[in-house]
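Design a sequence for this backbone.
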């Protein structure tokens, strides 16, 4: 089973979900693909991100509404530039991390393998444990 997190960049902040454990591959038939869809379709701000995580938990993992009501699994970190985003990505321990860029910034950096990453607004960056996986701008 693969682990993963959902994240959103708003202004100079990045908000991260708890780590989900199970089938978080970005394949469309796995939960990771569903996570990309939830980020792109349902997330506009911090509140909608929190609600998207709840909906994701309910729809994919079968967590009931009563279990999600007290869910406060959003962590916050400062993110001011591309180097901060690279450092955030380098610190990831999940198998897959999904990051929605809701700023007007284009983040540019290289992963540890030398792959150039260009991360435009309103797209989802998928980061595999060992580096860059891809960018999605449409639900899959």
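Sequence:
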């Amino acid at each position: 089973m693969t682990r993963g997190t959902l994240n959103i960049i708003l202004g100079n902040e990045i908000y991260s979900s708890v780590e989900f454990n199970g089938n978080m591959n970005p394949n469309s038939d796995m939960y990771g693909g569903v996570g990309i869809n939830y980020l792109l379709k349902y997330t506009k701000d911090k509140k909608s991100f929190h609600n998207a995580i709840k909906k994701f938990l309910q729809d994919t993992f079968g967590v009931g509404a009563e279990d999600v009501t007290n869910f406060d699994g959003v962590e916050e970190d400062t993110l001011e530039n591309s180097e901060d985003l690279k450092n955030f990505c380098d610190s990831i321990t999940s198998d897959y991390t999904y990051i929605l860029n809701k700023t007007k910034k284009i983040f540019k950096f290289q992963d540890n393998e030398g792959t150039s990453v260009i991360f435009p607004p309103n797209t989802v960056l998928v980061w595999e444990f060992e580096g860059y996986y891809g960018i999605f701008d449409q639900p899959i």
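The radius of gyration is 14 Å.
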